[in-house]
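Section 3.1: Structural characterization of target chains.
Under the original work plan, the team committed to producing a structural model for every single-chain target entering the pipeline before any wet-lab resources were allocated. The record below documents one such target. The sequence was received from the expression subgroup and is listed exactly as submitted; it comprises 331 residues.
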Amino acid sequence: MSTRRTSLNRRTFMTSAAAAGVLVATAARGQSGWPDHNVKIIIPYPAGGSTDVLSRILAERLKDMLGQNFVIENRPGAGGNIGIAAVAAAAADGYTVGAATIGHFAINQFLYSKMPFDAERDIVPASLTWELPNAFVVATDHVPVKTVAEFVAWAKQKGKVNFGSPGVGTSPHLSGVLFAKRAGIDAVHVPFRGAAQTIPAMLAGDVNFAIDNLTSYVSTIDSGKLRALAITSGQRWPTMPNVPTMAEAGVKDFVVTSWAAFVFPNGTPRPIIDKLSAALREIAKDEAIQKRFQAVGARAIGSTPEEALAYAARERAMWKDVVALSGAKAD
């Protein structure tokens, strides 16, 4: 299964009939005064990870633009399902938003035999919010390599290596599985609750590598404690010009980015959805925001609700095949 992808700003979005139906059903009821008190943003992962870091940046700007606090609440667990299930079950009044990711839209339903929510039925995206590459990282003090090719040779000589990820079925987990299969190495997956646990394990020498969201690793890479061997984007990352892409490192057809969207419970009035969507699209155009996102390994993006739904549908088809290839199950 190919993981090659083009960047979002070059994609042509097509609205599916099902996606349009979900949104049309909410269009009649409006709340022109929204928001008139605090809005809660549920982050379905631990504090300190990429979703948490980037959501907090957006929350700051949304407060400035819309005049109310956007309060972060972390609810990690079950591959992010616990947090987004809480969003789906919340009152559809516009005061509960979720930071849903690629996993919620396109991966988890193929990992879990029972899901606590249906991404196509129970949540509605306001806008795509960001995309970010993964970074192939190793601990400088424990893995004596400087390139991906050297790592493959080292791993084969070692006989067996292990890699960390934020959990079974996450894009970092699947990226690690795909790399191991293509490189012909024996790699054991070690799931953690987030990068805040993966990084100390790597620094202790308990985990040999990770292909994880760049955002969570930038500061540790900059400190020299971790070494980035490659980036999974199509081009070199602007703030890390000396780090090659996976293609440049010798691993062809390995362009993988993670992405996210802010979502509401289904049934949220369409004017509220549109108001948040417009704000997020405006924020994504802000050069200062783009620089802040870029500095931590991400790219701010915006979309209409229909564009986000259509993009999720295409991603769902791709990742279904990748999950099948990995053999991963979360139950």
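The first helix runs from residue 17 to 24.
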